Every structure is written in structure tokens, then in C-alpha cells.
Amino acid sequence: MTTTAPQGMTKAQLNDFYGLEALYTPEEKLIRDSVQEFVKGEILPDIGEWWQDGYFPPELPKKFGDLGVLGVTLPEKYGGLGASYTAYGLINREIEYGDSGMRSFVSVQSSLVMYPIFTYGSEDLKMKWLPRLASGEAVGCFGLTEPDAGSDPGSMQTKVKKIGNTYVINGVKRWITSGSRADVAIIWARSEDDGKVHGFAIDTTTPGFKAVDIKTKASMRASVTSELYLDEVTVTEAEKLDVTSLRGPLSCLNQARFGISWGVLGAGFFCLEEAAAYSEDRPIFGVPLASKQMIQMKLADMLADLTKGSLVAFQLAKLKEQGQDTPPRISLAKRDNVRAALGAARESRDMLGGNGITTEYGSIRHMLNLETVATYEGTDTVHTLVLGREITGHNAF
Ligand code: TGC
Ligand code: FAD
Hints:
By secondary structure, the protein is an alpha+beta fold. The protein has three domains: about 130 residues, Butyryl-Coa Dehydrogenase, subunit A, domain 1 (Orthogonal Bundle), CATH 1.10.540; about 100 residues, Butyryl-CoA Dehydrogenase, subunit A, domain 2; about 140 residues, Butyryl-CoA Dehydrogenase, subunit A, domain 3. Helix content is about 50%, strand content about 15%. The protein is built from twelve helices and ten strands. Strands 1, 2, 3, 4, 5, 6, 7 and 8 form an eight-stranded mixed β-sheet that branches. Strands 9-10 form a two-stranded antiparallel ribbon. Helix 5 packs antiparallel against helix 6, helix 6 packs antiparallel against helix 7 and helix 8 packs parallel to helix 10. The mean pLDDT is about 95. Bound molecules: 3-thiaglutaryl-CoA (TGC) and flavin-adenine dinucleotide (FAD). The site of 3-thiaglutaryl-CoA has 25 residues, from helix 6, helix 8 and helix 12. The site of flavin-adenine dinucleotide has 21 residues, from strand 1, strand 3, helix 11 and helix 12.
């Protein structure tokens, strides 16, 4: 990647236009800096090729574990760091600067697998999985979505029935990040006994569990996405999570959506930096592209949207640390920060002209990845309707 013009803003200035740096603790900055170094050395050099090849390196979970970014908000006893949500947000932002698929791995492992085991699992279940998930020796996945139940998870068809002291689960889950790599799968199923949604932490070596990768993706290509088949998968009470109703999976989504609201800023700022640098180096009609008003307008809009998103994400972390991160507040941050990042990626891709459609640059990869991020964890429409319901009191789903 080229460098920004000497007379223009530096990377650090672009990334922190409103001086949030002064509000991070020394520990948060230390964690952020170590992740930034990791992404620079271990992800950015190869990500274009991995993405083209549809490849997620199998050694990455262990490397993320060694870096200490898995389940950071959990207590040390379970392999976490007891770190703040701001630290978790900064980790997501730095990793997604590299690639949304890499951040997806970390989000799923931390927010959608370790969080429910920590919050709803027995002490034995916690000790069985959390330290190994934190070190990256074990990988987890989260199965809520089904072929015919995405935005409306309440219509899930996966069923669980209690037979004696065991639970028997049958169904299909689709679009499951890390599915075929997972050692443990958090599976949500509707009970044939009480009609309610229940969750289980299932060892994927259990007979009847099968994962098949989805290979036709034009987005998130460096992330593993699978379909899960559960055929008479039989588990015991020990694997059951202590939560009933959709509140269980949706509480996990609150965690992951928070992380996404920070993460996408990394992808967005990457694209802003790339566009600013490219437009300085690109001669057009005898002058640098960066000297054209329409280009400056686009860069100004990108900076404004991403800076506003950074303030929203930071304040959401503070609210979260006070237990004030209501679902509508999370919806606004997830929806609008994805919009800001996707807008920046699309503009940057355009400003790079023909070069913008190659993976030698990052913008088109980020742009295509962000199409997934706009869809998963609640589509843009779903979050709009959450906000509409909050404003008006009418449920328009
Ligand atoms: P509704 O009737 O509103 O509520 C049902 C129950 O859930 C509770 N609830 C929540 N609890 C915690 N957090 C939230 N955000 C909650 N929202 C609702 C609610 O209180 C109620 O509890 P209870 O105890 O009374 O039963 O539910 P609904 O059926 O009308 O649906 C609401 C809706 C549409 C907002 C929700 O279903 C939704 O968010 N849909 C989107 C689904 C989604 O986001 N799926 C994501 C799948 S995982 C994924 O994409 C991972 S990608 C990861 C990666 O790779 O990074
Ligand atoms: P649908 O729900 O069918 O939505 C189709 C369209 O309808 C969308 O535009 C939507 O906004 C719109 N729509 C929905 N409701 C309304 C309404 N009331 N009014 C008007 N329009 C509406 N899921 C998991 O459980 N675990 C994972 O790890 C996971 N990882 C994923 C990874 C990738 C790469 C992808 C692409 C998806 C992943 N998902 C995962 C699934 C994801 O959460 C769903 O794709 C998402 O929730 C949308 O569901 P759907 O695909 O069924 O679309």
C-alpha cells in the first residue's frame, strides 16, 4: 500500500480525528498496540491471497490464543484477561482492519461461544471448554440460523426432545461461522416438550453431528462458513445451558453486535487510508487525483461518518460497562457503523478505478466482506425495525 501525502493527515490523525486516544487506559492502548502489530505482521501480508483462495489458515486460532484476544472480558480463571469492553472493541477494530473474516472468527469464539458457556454453563462445562477456547486449542461455533429461519429465529425447525436423562436434537443450521472447524457447537433448538427455545454446548465429535462447508461465497472468503446437520444428536443435562427462550441466543448477539460496531470501523478506516494514499499518488489530468474537489468531498464524508461511528462505539462501550447497553442502542451502533464502513469501502473502491477491483488493494475485499456484515447479526432492516419499534411502540416485523 502507498503512503499518504506528506502534507496530508497521517494514519494516526485520520484514525482518531476527535482525540479518543486520550480516553483509553494504558492497558487498553497496550492491548490495542499488540494486536495492531500482529495484524501488520501476520495478516496483512497474506490476506489478499487467503481471500482469493477461500482459505482460513488452521494455525490462526492458536495464534489468536497466544496473542490473548479470545474471551478477553472473561475472568483470568477461565483464560480471559478481565479486560474492559473498550479493550474488546479495540481488538475487534484492529483485527477487522486486516479482514472482517478474521474478526468474525474472534467474535464468534468470544461473544457467541465463550460468553454463553460462561453465562449459562455449569462450572464443569466452563472448566471443560473455556480455557481451551481462550488458548485457541479448541474452536467454537454458534448455530442459530437455519435454511428457513434467519431474521426470524423464532421460526426455527431444529427440535429437541427429552428422553430419560438425555436430550435428542434433530435439525439443520445454515451459515455457521467456523462450523467445520469447531470442537464445540452452541446449538439452539425448540423443545417438543415445553415449546421453548433451549441451548446446548455440543461436542462436535458426538455421533450424528456433521458440518459441510459452503464454498460458493463471494464475501468473507477467508472465513469458514458451514451448514450443520444434527441427526439424533444425543446429549446430557451437563451440556444444556441454563437459559430458556430466544432471550438466550439474543443475549449472545448483543455481545457480538457490540463487537461488530467497533470492528467495522477498522475496515472502514483501512479503506479511507487506502483511498487517501492512492488519490495522492494517482496523476489525473496533470495533477494528483487528491487535488480534485469531488475526491476531497468523498474523503471528507468517509472521515465524518467513520469519526461519528467511533464516538458511538466508544460511548456504547461506556454504557455497556455500566449495564446500560440496551438492545436498541446496540442496534443503532451495529446498523450505522456498518453503513459507514460499507459506504467508505464502496467509495474507496471507486476512487481506485480499475485497480480497485483487484485484491492487490484491500478496498474491494473489505467492501464484499462488509456486505455479509450488513446481513449477519441482524440485517440493516432488522435493526431499523428494532429502532422503529423503540421510537413508536409499534412492532413492524
Ligand atoms: P421478541 O418477541 O422481540 O423477543 C423474544 C424474546 O427475546 C428477548 N429479546 C432479547 N433478549 C436479549 N437481547 C435482545 N437483543 C433481545 N431481543 C429480544 C425478548 O425479551 C423475549 O424474551 P422472553 O423471555 O420474553 O421470551 O422476538 P421476535 O421473535 O419478535 O424477534 C425479534 C428480532 C427480530 C429483533 C430478533 O429475532 C432478531 O434480532 N433477529 C435477527 C436474527 C439475528 O441477528 N441472527 C444472527 C445469527 S448469529 C450470526 O449472524 C453470527 S455471525 C457471526 C460472525 O461471523 O461474526
Ligand atoms: P432473511 O431473514 O431471509 O432476510 C432476507 C431479506 O428480508 C433481508 O433483506 C432482510 O433484511 C429482509 N427482512 C427480514 N425481516 C423483514 C421484515 N420484517 N420486513 C421487511 N424485510 C425484512 N448465523 C448463525 O447462527 N451463526 C453464524 O455463525 C453465522 N455466520 C454467518 C456468516 C456468514 C458469512 C453469513 C452470510 C451469515 C451468517 N449467519 C450466521 C446467518 C445470518 O445471521 C443470517 O444470514 C441473517 O440473520 C439473515 O438471515 P437470512 O439469511 O435467512 O435472510
